[in-house]
Design goal:
Elements: E1 2-14, E2 19-31, E3 35-39, H1 46-53, E4 62-73, E5 78-81, H2 87-93, E6 98-101, H3 105-108, H4 115-127, H5 131-144, H6 150-153, H7 163-175, E7 181-185, H8 193-210, E8 213-218, H9 221-227, E9 230-235, E10 238-244, H10 245-250, H11 255-262, H12 303-307, E11 313-316, E12 319-321
Bound molecules: iron/sulfur cluster.
Length: about 325
């Protein structure tokens, strides 16, 4: 049962240099209780897609040109288009139904409010709790995400927490109102590897306990291999491959996905020798896309790729790719 269906999402930025074609028709769905990994290099459109859904982009210069983002409620009986919500409806959904974990907790949290109040604010706004009940629940949430001494830590400010602990606070805010979807936007990028592993474990545990659907944005294919059910690979504002996670790692089809997997280091001598790299650079997003966006870096490119844009097609059950091959 899908909880979110995104159809043909197109977002552009109108800048002094010209029009940046950031998203060029992104379509995907998210099922209840699944983890969808979205991978791709910087500038591929991963975060812009998620921020478009929740109206978090600065407009202008951003503009959502077209698309639909259907969010299903009550077991699929009701749906709302996230892109056409009124301000009041958006407040109900954002934070209440869809939680967002930002990459950099230090800049996402308010530096002059205690973390307890920041969690409580969301509970009072969305669930209508009184100040005392919100405080009680905020302490419970801090305990739930593994903050020791939660009663005392409730009164601390973000700068009094370590990076990993701040990210736990962000997670507490994201799950506070019992959302259906949590968007985790590179939640471990700024952390060292041992803390990264703890945060990955925490989100995975909460996802199972709360039956959350999670969209996990990352450039780290190793992380999604361990936690995702399905993976969407983005390149230059397009989804270029969508597949079940095992299928993607065992049978990658798109040349870009193959390149990303070839660049992954292995452990235990499985991948001895030089790592592969993807030659060249991503295309200039100021140019209107007219052909396969990967053409200048693709080792298999042929004439048709330079003149036409391939469609995203299903080549096996639940396995889609955007390539003429
Ligand atoms: Fe390569 Fe052509 Fe496929 Fe694009 S359509 S990925 S250039 S083979």
């Amino acid at each position: 049962m899908p909880i979110l269906e995104v159809k043909n999402l197109v977002t552009r930025f109108y800048t002094i240099e010209g029009v940046v074609h950031a998203l060029n028709g992104v379509s995907f769905d998210l099922e209840e209780g699944e983890i969808l990994g979205i991978v791709g290099e910087s500038g591929s459109g991963k975060s812009v897609a998620m921020m478009s859904l929740l109206n978090l982009l600065p407009m202008p210069p951003a503009r959502i040109e077209r698309g639909k983002a259907l969010f299903y409620e009550n077991g699929g009986q009701d749906s709302v288009d996230l892109l056409t919500l009124t301000k009041a409806e958006r407040r109900r959904v954002r934070g209440g139904k869809i939680g967002y974990i930002f990459q950099d907790a230090l800049s996402a949290l308010n530096p002059v409010m205690t973390v307890g109040r920041q969690i409580g604010e969301s509970l009072m706004e969305h669930l209508g709790l009184s100040g005392e009940d919100a405080k009680h629940r905020a302490v419970e949430l801090l305990e739930h995400v593994g903050i020791p001494g939660a009663e005392k830590r409730y009164y601390n400010y973000p700068h009094q927490f370590s990076g990993g602990m701040r990210q736990r606070v962000m997670i507490a805010i994201a799950i506070a109102c019992d959302p259906k979807i949590v968007i985790a936007d590179e939640p471990t990028t700024a952390l060292d590897v041992t803390v990264q592993a703890q945060i990955v474990e925490l989100i995975k545990r909460l996802q199972e306990e709360l039956r959350l659907a999670v969209i996990w944005i990352t450039h780290d294919l190793g992380v999604v291999a361990g936690i995702a059910d399905r993976v969407l690979v983005m390149y230059a504002g397009y989804p270029v491959e969508i597949s079940l996670v095992d299928d993607l790692y065992n049978n990658p089809v798109h040349p870009y996905t193959k390149g990303l997997l070839g660049a992954l280091p292995g452990i235990g001598g499985k991948r001895a020798g030089r790592l592969e790299s993807i030659e060249g650079a991503p295309p200039d997003l100021l140019a209107k896309p007219k052909h396969c966006q990967f053409v200048w870096r693709c080792p298999y490119a042929f004439d048709r790729c330079r003149n036409e844009m391939p469609e995203l097609v299903e080549i096996a059950p639940k396995h889609y790719t955007k390539c003429f091959l």
